[in-house]
Amino acid sequence: MQRLHSLVIEEGIVAADLWPEMSSRITRNLAEFYPTLREISFVRCSMGPRLTRALLFGVENIESIVFDNYVQGIFAPARHDSGLRPVRLRLLKTITIVGVVPNLSRLLTIGTLKAVREIHLHRLVSWKTADLLLLLENATQRLRSFSTEPGEILPGHLSNDARTAIEDRLYWWMIRPTVASQSASVFRISIGIISPHHTAVSAVHSIQGLPVQELAMAYCFDSSCAHISTTLLPTLFPSLKAVHVLYVGPLEAEEVHLKLRDVFLPAIYTDIELRVEKAVL
Q1: pLDDT in the model for residue 77
Q2: What is the pLDDT of residues 197-215, one digit of tens each?
Q3: 183: exposed, middle or buried (Cβ count in 10 Å: 0-12, 13-18, 19+)
Q4: How far apart are alpha carbons 280 and 253 in whole angstroms?
Q5: 68: nearest Cα among 109, 106, 97, 38
Q6: Three-class SS of residue 87?
Q7: Which strands form 71-72's sheet, in the order they lie side by side?
């Protein structure tokens, strides 16, 4: 028995989905030899859902799972996946997804998602809308931290109507989890605002009153900054210590800093740190 706490599966191109007996053997081996495993990462892996489930069934005490440019299902036609029950990771607290989003609806139970406390999405380049919404809509019970990167969520080939509809759903679910427990000790919140048409006002009002100390916000705005002109963050968050703004737009960071300092943080709130960074896309 090995006291292994973290397992990274890298460059795994495996066709084991076509041989179910291999999957069951992997499950037994992981459960027997690595019962203390708490973190598992799939890095640049191409494997089907049957094998992935086999790996996760073997380590049901996992607390953190990472999908880093993970491509699922290349070797597994749909017929090989029928009738398989999803994995129930009852202790899962953190999900990190980089690059390609896996087919979560075929991997994890909704009950598993409801136990998650942190979700981090980075450089998403390919995903199924239903899967991402499943992740965001069901992880609302205990979520304490949600972070994403601006301008990289929506695939460019969508029509304008489809983009708007998905933006609205994503925008709402990015902020809703923090409202699930009004008594929660939320110290840092990231709000990804990915459209120049959305206002920051509804976002910050939705989490008003929570004990937020650091607020990270992403903007895509024009030179007027008009759509954030009515937001007074210190009034909404008395515990606020720092505001970090990542923006996309024609202005230089110094100009945005001056505008936001006047809008967000009046002179009486000089003890609140304001950091402004221009995104490089």
Answers
A1: 39
A2: 444 444 455 555 656 676 6
A3: exposed
A4: 12
A5: 97
A6: strand
A7: 13-14, 46-47, 71-72
Domain ranges of the chain: 1-143, 160-281
Q: Cβ distance 87 to 113 under 8 Å?
A: no
Strands 6-10 and 39-43: parallel
Q: In the beta sheet, which residues pair with residue 219?
A: 247
Pick the CATH number of 1-143 from 2.60.40, 3.40.50, 1.10.730, 3.80.10: 3.80.10
pLDDT of 88 strictly over 70: yes
51 alpha-carbon distance from chain centroid: 24
Which amino acid does the sequence have at 248? Answer: V
How far is it, in rounded angstroms, from Cα 175 to Cα 183? Answer: 16
Q: What value does the mean pLDDT take over residues 8-20?
A: 59
As to burial, measured by CB atoms within 10 angstroms (0-12 exposed, 13-18 middle, 19+ buried), residue 80 is middle
